[in-house]
Design brief:
elongated; disordered N terminus
Length: about 120
Amino acid sequence: MLAKSVAVAAKGERAKVSSRVIKDQRPGLTVERFFTRQGVDPFETVEWELRDAIISGADGKVFFEQRGVEFPKTWSQTATNVVVQKYFRGTLGTPQRESSVRAMIARVADTIYGWGKADGYFK
């Protein structure tokens, strides 16, 4: 539960200040739907494609490669390369490796929601 420290001056004394903790009585945040519609999977509103994420140097030497990753068609190749290299989970070449930005978005959203729920931020 959230708590905030509040300075309280003793009655009639200006110089003396004590501190006490007041528990925040708010029941949690309510997040209203804005970008999505009830009953419609947001991932189904996006056009997806499979592509390869390859990062190479000026000399053509490949530093990173993951083939057949799923991304929205509207995302640039640079965005694809960065997200796959930096944010996909799992060891390359293993079944545990993420291969879709859908999985990454779901993982991050579920994690943030879980933290907020556990800490009492959401109803």
